[in-house]
Amino acid sequence: MRETHKSIYTQAIPGINRIDDHVRFTHGEKCLEHFGDGLRPSDKLLADATNAQQRGRHTKHWCETTTKIGEGSIRDTFAARDAKLRQWKEHLNKEVDKLAQEIERVEAHQREVLRRRQYLSDVSRVSEMTAEFRKRRPDREEDDIDRLQFEEMNAALKVDCDLQQCFRDLKECQRQMEVARQALMSEVEAKVFSLNISRRTQHAKPLLSFPYKPEDHPVDQIYHPNTEEDWEKDLSDKVNKSVATRQEASICCLRTAASVKDGLSRVADAWYRTSKALQEAVQRDERTLFNVQNRLQTVGENITSTKQRLASLNDDMRMQDRGKTLQLWRLQTLTYRPGADHIRDAPVRRLEEELGNIEKRGAFVTEGITRNKELLNRLEEEKLQQTLLMEKLTKKLFLERENCLGLRRTVAVEGVGLEDYVTDL
After folding, report:
1. Structural domain tally of the chain?
2. What does pTM read for this prediction?
3. CA atoms within 13 A on the CB side of 220
4. What are the recorded Gene Ontology BP terms (predicted)?
């Protein structure tokens, strides 16, 4: 009977040695025709066995060599994959660290923005309270200080709106960076898991076929059902997206710092312009109050002197009235003397002349009294006006100097270039 050729191996399967037991030859293959029929049957069988043994050795050597090549290729593939995984792991860890540093920087800018907004809130509160204090003034007239305060409050409000938008932008950048960091950290965990699997199975028998093709073994692509090139491209895209996110966050931080610097400068400029106007108004009011006090002192002295003159004139008027009464009595006595009716002699004429002088003097004194009374009335009215003005100025000075400027001293103005302003209120 002829034995059919049987071979139970298909490819070079790693881990299986090729031995002669797995190779069977037919009777025809075992016959050696080139030796001829001159040999004895025993020699033919011996030569046939020798040939079969040699062919078996060649087949075994070929199988072992193929197995070694396959195992080496698989080991090299695993080693290259491990090296690539370690390289990507280090690269991803560096990018994760950079993201963490940028997130900390963004959080620091967020805290700075919140602190600046609190400062602007204090500035706005002080500005509003200053405006409320100024509304209590006796003279509620619109002036440049009200306009400067309005500009100051508008500047603080606008800067606060800008900082609020910067804070929202920083929050969004932080969220995007956290999402990117979480994605990269999951990739790092996947690489670590793959490295652990490779480390634990490096001494086991290889299970992959030769030649190794990633697309033929999707199970080997842990967390990555695609090919090596696909997940490398995906990782590159994630890293590039992370770098773009970090760059956008850095630009947002720079924009926030510029907005804070510019906004604080504008608020400080408006603040010190208002403070300077308040200082000048207080100085003007102090000079006016000093002049009013001096004028009141002068008016008081004038009133005193006028009252003294009126008292002297009244005394003189009483003396003139007494002299006039005496002269009239004398003239009446001389005029109605017995036996001499209506005699106009020298004594009578002298008495009439003295009486006329007394009347002229009395008229002059009366005119002086009238003039001094009018002057005294005017001085009293002026004193009343100056007193009211002094009360108004005193209240206004108290509001602007003690309340307004005193309240504004409680705010530590922040900004750049403050050496150009007079910060001592």
Report:
1. 2
2. 0.62
3. 19
4. cilium assembly; cilium movement involved in cell motility
